[in-house]
Every structure is written in C-alpha cells, then in structure tokens.
Write a structure and sequence with these properties.
Blueprint: E1 17-23, E2 26-32, H1 44-52, E3 62-65, H2 71-79, E4 85-89, H3 92-104, E5 110-114, E6 126-131, H4 139-152, E7 153-164, H5 169-180, E8 183-189, E9 192-198
Parallel strand pairs: 3-4, 3-6, 4-5, 6-7
Antiparallel strand pairs: 1-2, 7-9, 8-9
Length: about 200
C-alpha cells in the first residue's frame, strides 16, 4: 500500500517544520512533518469547519476524529476552555505532533490518543464530534466513522463533517440522513460542504 496520511506509521523521512497561523482570532503555533495531512498550512476545509462550528447547547466533551497535528481540536479547546476536547488519529506521527502542539500553545483541556476511527474511544456522551474525514482511506472507512460517531454522541449532540462535493458530499449526506434522520447543510463554500447531524 502506498504511504499517505491515513497510514498508521508513515515511512516517509521525518522533516519537521514550524509555522504560525491565526484561527478564530487566536495565534496558534504548529509543528508539522512529512507523512501528515496538510503539513504546510491549515487546509481550507478544516479552517471552514472551525469557523462554522456552533457549540452544542448540551454539556459534554468534544471529539476531533482524524485530528492530524491538531488544528481543529486545539482551536476548539482554546475557544471553549470549559470543554474537555478529545483528539484521535490512527497516524502515530500525527499524534506525537498534536501532543507537541498543545504543549507549545499551553492548552491543557485536551486528551490525545491513538485510535483507528473511534475504536479506542470509550467516552459515549460527546456533545459534539467533528471530522475532516480521510478521503484516501475510502468510503467504507469514512462511513464507519459516521456510524461510530452516532453511537458515541449524547442525545442532542451533533456530528459535524466537512467534505468536498467532488470527494463525496452527496453520499455523505445520504449516509448521515440514514443514521440521524435530519441533516443540516450549515455552509457551502468553494465546493466544500459543512454538515451538522444531530442525535435526537
């Protein structure tokens, strides 16, 4: 299998780099590396998801599935310091980078751990689960993420997904409607869709 960011242990030679970005008005320092998704900048889809996300009206932690080096989970942890944010990824290099980055940015209300989808997630009362799904992993894997998320959300909690139309937004909407009933298209921009699916 060719190496890509969904690989558990990237074999590409490590070449760390550091840079800074501003997200939700907060300056964030990142260390990234080869073998992780969007290593040079926070990608448009993740940025749109961060900017569009609305905090749930219910209590409970937040989960970032496929966190990569951490931009989504870190920004939400800074924006909502009263929330515990879980960040998971199958990629061990991404997990190590996420741990480095939360330390660099003095973020303490997070838990970061390795998980293939939600396999290792034991909490089942999340108020929100967010994902910019790993398209290269294939539809079967992505749909498994959605199914597992439906089980791990608290009643009244929401799954938030960003996905491009050309990479499967229509089929994602159908799948989410099967799992949750009603699905809201919160935003559409440059071919990216933001879906919110609430568990009722």
């Amino acid at each position: 299998m060719s190496q890509h960011y969904y690989s558990k242990n990237p074999q590409t030679k490590s070449n760390p780099r550091e840079w800074t970005d501003v997200l939700l008005g907060k300056k964030i320092r990142f260390q990234t590396d080869t073998g992780v998704f969007s290593k040079s900048e926070v990608d448009f889809g993740s940025r749109l998801l961060i900017e569009t996300f609305e905090e749930a009206e219910i209590d409970g932690p937040v989960l970032d599935v496929g966190c990569g080096y951490g931009p989504i989970g870190m920004v939400l942890a800074k924006a909502f310091p009263h929330k515990q944010v879980h960040m998971v990824d199958v990629n061990t290099r991404a997990i190590e980078l996420a741990k480095i980055n939360v330390e660099k940015n003095d973020i303490s209300n997070v838990q970061i751990y390795e998980s293939d989808g939600l396999d290792a997630v034991v909490t089942s009362d999340f108020s929100a689960i967010l994902t910019n799904p790993p398209i290269r992993a294939g539809k079967e894997t992505i749909f498994r993420f959605y199914e597992e998320a439906a089980e791990k959300l608290a009643e009244g909690g929401s799954l938030w997904v960003v996905i491009q139309k050309k990479q499967g937004a229509p089929s994602t909407q159908v799948k989410l409607e099967e799992l949750f009933g009603e699905v809201r298209v919160v935003d559409k921009k440059k071919g990216y869709f933001i879906f919110e699916a609430r568990k009722v």
